[in-house]
Inverse folding.
């Protein structure tokens, strides 16, 4: 069993690479915390409570997958060590391999990608938040010694995928 955590700023390619891994790992579970959060009614009006609840749901999904002897791919911008460490603790309890990756690029690169992708009308992510999240991740990545930092600036999506696959547990 494996827990693969794909972290990084908005627009860096987490979803694309996570989907590729998911396709390549039969019976794995692709855990999208943001998707889980959208199932919580009034999540926008209650951001702190819905964030907490979405991670409680996420941890229970990881637990259920490990109970079923399945791999989990978790993709999410996570800026708090205690949240990442809680997912890691579940994996450790079950003897699962843990692979924590932070996809990284310059602020200009990230902002160009997110602008090209576009912004959802009434979406939670705005250009200002995207820039703020990049700044926070820039500091946070220095604290995550256990995470493999992958600079994606000069890599194709396939090359990023291969780099993640090459990481040893």
């Amino acid at each position: 069993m494996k827990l693969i955590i794909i972290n990084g700023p908005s627009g860096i390619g987490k979803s694309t690479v996570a989907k590729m891994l998911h396709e390549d790992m039969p019976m794995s579970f692709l855990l999208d915390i943001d998707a889980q959060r959208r199932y919580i009614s009034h999540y926008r009006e209650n951001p702190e409570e819905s964030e907490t609840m979405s991670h409680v749901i996420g941890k229970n999904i990881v637990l259920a997958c490990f109970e079923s002897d399945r791999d989990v791919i978790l993709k999410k911008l996570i800026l708090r060590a205690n949240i990442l460490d809680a997912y890691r603790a579940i994996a450790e309890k079950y003897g699962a391999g843990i692979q924590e990756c932070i996809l990284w690029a310059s602020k200009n690169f990230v902002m160009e990608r997110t602008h090209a992708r576009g912004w959802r009308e009434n979406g939670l992510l705005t250009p200002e938040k995207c820039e703020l999240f990049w700044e926070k991740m820039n500091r946070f990545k220095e604290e995550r010694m256990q995470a493999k930092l992958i600079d994606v600036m000069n890599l194709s999506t396939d090359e990023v995928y291969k780099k993640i696959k090459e990481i040893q547990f």
User: Anything to note?
Assistant: The two ends are 10 Å apart (CA to CA).
